[in-house]
């Protein structure tokens, strides 16, 4: 190890030794002093304020601060040797059993009752008791009351606040803490990237102070100030990136597509069989104004399931066709693309029959381009698109392939944008001579801070009203393990709906035998729970059992495209009573006669996913019913999540709950690039005000220095926190 001054770029092997540096690199992806000082504690334990052991979940990797209560040695039953059982407690009634196999008398002497320590491992359960098997641990001195200072050899825990780091089994938190102490002893912080005016105006501490205090806080107040500064850096970096993108995009040229009085759009509005909601009209006015400008529209249209986004998008597409251009809609699945195609043909009628008998005067053509088109049909469709006769083009990612050329692509509509990778969306945009206008649609409600942070370079429109005639959806949790009779009643309830002339969905988390699909959760978790229920296994059991005699169809992502379409069409036409499916029905599938959905293993789905799924029922005049079947125990976090879904149909409330339960990095695109998220402290849920303030500062700074030329340290910091891949994700999302 060295005592020379270190910087953010100093390799860790020069500071903590080759062996430890190798472990930090291989297990935690930490290579330099900068990586380590930006590896912030997950939380802080405090002597006298102990971890609530009772709140730990089985399967969780934990580090707890606890006191040894008693030890016991007993012979093992299956093999020779003894088993050491150590009971530790947190002072509030919660206890954990630590188990050590083999003859380890020295450990029994070390783990004396009364001693405090940090204990790290995976929580398991044995005969109703929670335990850690062979945990790593670090004892904190020889005190029985937990208040005395730690011994010299573990001085990194001398403070009242003990940092607990994101760790690995091979690199526990106390090893990280020791390495941080070594690095901080010689560390020269980087030049503060935040402009002095922003620091002073927002009362933020300097970067050197923040980095020291977050690891070795001198008080709770100083820790709060350090965290606030470092959160600010993260929020400011993201907002600067987005504001810069928006600033640049505002100067791009695009062909204006103004409304045409007496054109296709007016004819379409005149033949619509229902009134547009006030929300649809207002959003339509916003989009129409955007399309008429000489700069590309970048607008996010969010609306609850069934709020009428598709009609809004179709009206925008018709405005572009009226102005001589073409519009393309990119759907995530062939099932949804085909459904959009049929739905738009029905709505447009003679307006989509250009070149056919009975066509309207200003008619256009609507083409469907998917991977399953036959060679002749594909050639015909591509010719219609390339020569501009098809004003509206619908498809899956097949639209992105070479050979699909547009005469004049003026508008790209992306349906359910979160299903597409950045590169796919960009490939479709690149098919236009100039940047086309872009409308991104999502039925997943987005909390305000997520919209501000992930979609900060898009204007946002929201549809909150449901069209007239839409029916309410009732949702209930069915606790199958505790009350099997409730599950029997669920199947009888489904049969009653079918007897009344309606249809039903049964949704399973898994397809069945064969390789794992992207639409499936893991087959079984580390805690040994049974694999999730599968469509191909459940369907025959239902046909022979509780749903005997009903017409049952099966739908999942691995079926050939023509078979998927045939099943979906058969269900839509009323030739099937029950559709047993995976989440392939989550998005856009519209069968107004379907009134009941039973979701099996509902705890295996996310909150927003369940909300999307239940939006498939109650789309007609009859009320919808969604039954969430689960074996999750009452009081468990999974059960509480399902109770929350059942208690409200407010998608925005559920989106906030969903956000609470997801890693922030997922929201911010870390999983898109496969890299570790550099946004470690910022919470989109809890830091709304800070994010709003950072955006205001970012707008002011970019207006006076668009490329941050006068702030090179800040530009470098932004590049480090929001790397190029993530910046592209934010831009194109």
CATH topology name of the largest domain, in short, is Rossmann fold
Q: How many H/I helices?
A: 26
Based on the structure given, which CATH architecture of the largest domain is correct?
A: 3-Layer(aba) Sandwich
Radius of gyration over all CA atoms, rounded: 30 Å
- Summarize the biggest pleated sheet: 7 strands, parallel
Written account of the structure:
The protein is α/β, with parallel strands linked by helices. The chain has four domains: 22-31 and 34-143 and 153-188, Beta Barrel (OB fold (Dihydrolipoamide Acetyltransferase, E2P)); 189-251 and 693-732, no CATH class; 264-463, Rossmann fold (3-Layer(aba) Sandwich); 473-514 and 530-648, P-loop containing nucleotide triphosphate hydrolases (Rossmann fold). The chain has 26 helices and 21 strands. Strands 11-12-10-13-14-9-15 form a seven-stranded parallel sheet, with helices on both faces. It has a six-stranded parallel sheet with strand order 16-21-20-17-19-18, with helices on both faces. Helix 13 (375-386) links the parallel strand 11 and strand 12 (390-395). Helix 7 packs across helix 8 (220-249) and helix 8 crosses helix 25. The longest helix has 30 residues, at 220-249. The chain is globular. It starts with 12 loop residues before the first helix and ends with a helix. This is Probable DNA 3'-5' helicase RecG. InterPro entries: DEAD/DEAH_box_helicase_dom, Helicase_ATP-bd, Helicase_C-like, NA-bd_OB-fold, P-loop_NTPase, RecG/Mfd, RecG_dom3_C, RecG_wedge. GO terms for molecular function: ATP binding; DNA binding; DNA helicase activity; hydrolase activity.
